[in-house]
Specification:
alpha+beta
């Protein structure tokens, strides 16, 4: 049996790989979307070649039913494209979304572990823009550090900077950066500061939007004259899409004279409870409503809850995509089964029961679905690479490590394979249920 040509599918896969390395167009990952489309079409085009390669590895059965199923699957493999194309595309998209969402959630969880090291957090403003109208006095910070149950307090100043008139403001964070690798989720080992220089650390969005690089000087519009600082490192920030700059709080106060703070990180003493410390902190202010308080557990749970709600729709989209793919294979196999009524009648005259005929069709469907599931899985992983390493950085200006949830992907592929085989068997039952005499009579 001649192998079907694989070059069209391979050419599309090559085009998809090339498009994945193209830059964003107008700030949008249009080339990356083209890469995803090329990969999907290339994977579907490769289904006949994959079916041929997989079936060639199988030994020829010695019993009649497996032999009939295998031989027809081999000689009619071109029909596998029409039968499982929808399943390949839907499974690939489901795998890609699963990998992307899992990778993002794991990255956010690890990021929260770094940016929320304290036990309790307090803030005076809900956003950096409001930080210039609502802040905590230095005396409040000192009083909070002396409260019973408080082991240590770290104060931060959060404000906005307008670096470019045609872009949203970036966030400036002045905090203790004596150990930047502990205070920030840095992507790499930071540069060592030179004596007397002002050091800052920028988020990934600053690199994408402003072209900021490690070792480069940056001008910050603080006061009447721009403040020049050197970028010593890049850190990951999933909270601020338009960029953030972190500067040491001591240097910030010395250079600007701004001693205001609007964020507190509080470490509790052994035996102290968050509720007790929160009540004592509120008692220091004339209006307790001026202070927003939350424990690390609450902030973490809230952040992940928001994340899960934001991506809940992807799970419904996966279910819809799989359902559409199964409907496609049901329609294709049903049409093929109806066209084979005479063949089924002949098999019935030869002594095959209805169950054996259904088993033959299910075996053919299993061979095609195995190839489709394998192509869909590999294709989905390839698409997830584009989503994680190209679409996300170009769209949101942040990166994340790739995480492959092996168990979840195995369950997804197993469910799709089982549903596809069951769909093929169900479609065969109706045609095989006709009288053998009526099926063959059309040839008389």
């Amino acid at each position: 049996v001649l192998a079907p040509p694989a070059w069209p599918g391979l050419a599309l896969l090559g085009a998809g790989a090339a498009l994945a390395f193209a830059p964003a167009i107008g700030g949008l990952p249009l080339a990356a979307y083209g890469a995803v489309a090329a990969l999907l079409f290339g994977g579907v085009a490769l289904v006949p070649a994959v079916v041929h390669a997989l079936l060639a590895l199988l030994p020829t059965p010695r019993t009649a039913l497996p032999l009939l199923a295998l031989q027809r699957a081999r000689y009619q493999r071109r029909t596998a494209t029409a039968a499982v194309a929808g399943v390949v595309a839907s499974l690939a998209l489901s795998v890609a979304l699963t990998v992307m969402v899992t990778s993002f959630r794991d990255a956010v969880s690890a990021w929260l572990d770094t940016v929320l090291p304290a036990d309790l957090y307090a803030r005076s403003a809900a956003s950096p823009d409001a930080g210039d109208q609502a802040w905590l006095a230095p005396g409040f910070v000192a009083a909070a550090a002396r409260l019973p149950g408080v082991q240590r307090v770290a104060a931060s100043r959060v404000t906005s900077l307008q670096l470019a008139p045609d872009r949203p403001a970036v966030t400036l964070i002045a905090r203790d950066l004596a150990h930047p690798d502990r205070a920030l989720p840095l992507l790499d080992v930071p540069l060592a500061p030179a004596p007397g220089e002002v050091r800052v650390y920028v988020s990934e969005a600053m690199v994408s939007l402003y072209g900021t690089r490690v070792g480069q000087d940056i001008a910050l519009p603080l006061g009447s004259a721009p403040l020049h600082a050197r970028v010593l490192g890049v850190w990951r920030d999933y909270a601020r899409q338009f960029g953030a700059v972190a500067i040491d709080a001591t240097a910030y106060r010395r250079l600007t004279g701004d001693a205001r703070v609007n964020d507190l990180a509080i470490w509790l003493a052994p035996g102290a409870t968050a509720a007790e410390v929160q009540a004592r902190l509120r008692a220091l202010l004339p209006d307790p409503a001026m202070l927003d308080l939350a424990s690390t557990g609450e902030l973490r749970a809230l952040s992940l809850r928001i994340f899960d709600r934001s991506f809940a729709v992807t799970y419904y989209l996966q279910a819809v995509a799989i359902a559409i793919g199964l409907v496609g294979i049901a329609a294709s196999l049903s049409a093929q089964v109806l066209a084979r009524r005479k063949e089924f009648g002949l098999l019935a005259h030869l002594g095959l029961t209805r169950g054996q005929v259904v088993a033959i069709v299910a075996g053919e469907g299993a061979a095609w679905m195995a190839a489709g599931t394998l192509v869909g899985l590999l294709l989905g992983i390839a698409v997830s690479l584009v989503l994680v390493f190209v679409v996300n950085p170009q769209s949101f200006h942040w990166t994340m490590p790739l995480v492959l949830p092996a168990l979840r992907l195995a369950l997804l592929c197993g469910a799709v394979f089982g549903a596809g085989v069951a769909t093929a068997a169900f479609g065969a039952r109706r045609a095989a249920g006709r009288s053998a005499v009526l099926s063959v009579k059309e040839d008389w």
